[in-house]
# Entry
Amino acid sequence: MSDGALAGVTVLDLATYLAAPVCATFFGELGADVIKVEQPGRGDDLRRLGRAADGSSYWWLVEARNKKSITCNLRDPAGQALIKRLVAGAHVVTENFRPGTLERWDLGWDALAAVRPSLVMVRISAFGQTGPYRTRPGFGRIAAAVGGLSYLSGYPDRPPVTPGTPTVPDYLAGVFAAMGALAALRHAERTGDGQVVDVGLYEPVLRVLDDAIAVHGATGYVRERLGSGTESAVPHDHYRARDARFVAVACTNDRMFARLCQAIGREELASDDRCRTTPARLAHRALVDDVVSAWIGARDATDVLAALDRAEVPCSLVYSVKDLFEDPHVAARENIVSVVSAVAGALSMPGVVPRLTRTPGRIDSAGPSRPGEHNEEIYGARLGIGRDELARLAERGVI
# Structure
């Protein structure tokens, strides 16, 4: 992608599983050259996670897209030497090992910055590089729990649930880390000085709790679970239609509520003191939700959506993944694309986000089908290592 927004940027992805690799994936979609470093033989653990096609995880094929795979034993001094040679020509390194791991392998920040002072090193770990929990392990489910999101997810009379999927925190961390890496790259361009982008997996979760932290800090109030409703507005929930489909409604101000009242034939509620303002509706949540639930429950979802759309009340079906494939807007925006994979054929996957008008991102390839697929290209073309030497390194388990 010589015309991509990040053309000329090289990313060395040392990470495994999801959060930091996703950060590298975003760079690759926008034109960066991303080199994925995998364990010799086994490859990345994401290759074996979830459902698979011909032995390759669909997840891997999606999230390793646009990457070139090399193998390298990071525990071996010879492997460490190879990584340092690659770092000399890289702009960004991504990793998500427990803090201290890369230092034990002589691949920590100090060692790599000595090779390339302008390097940007993205370090995503469960709890960040500092603090009393820094060495604790963790995955997305733990991050959602520690970040405060799981506590808010579910119904008040039931245990907390994982919001969406357990990997939402991984993707959030990848987004925040990519933003940090871009800022650090801009700084390196101006000054020549690299730096570490340090993200704890739980931290982006904590960051997106809207006003829960500010409210607790000011008042001591602890937000509790509300099911599919929301604390700041009503009606703002998922409502079951007559055909058993669920409709999402989001009335966030008095004007929207007045339009909804007109759409459902209950204009008098807009001037009722119990419903006229947002604070009043919150105080009488059950009354408002019962009225909306009864109206929606007596109609099929398509009729509900048509009436609310005419009234310009924000609404939608609660989509399954099947619905996403059938939606004309999703198709028009190319939110789902097809990419040819050597092991899965034409493979559907999410499109590139965000959309850039002058230098749009693109997907040139699915994840590499085998670990080390690009060893000869990367080690040979970039480092000048011949085939005989590569063969010897492979025999020794270095690559």
About this structure: The first strand starts at residue 10 and ends at 13.
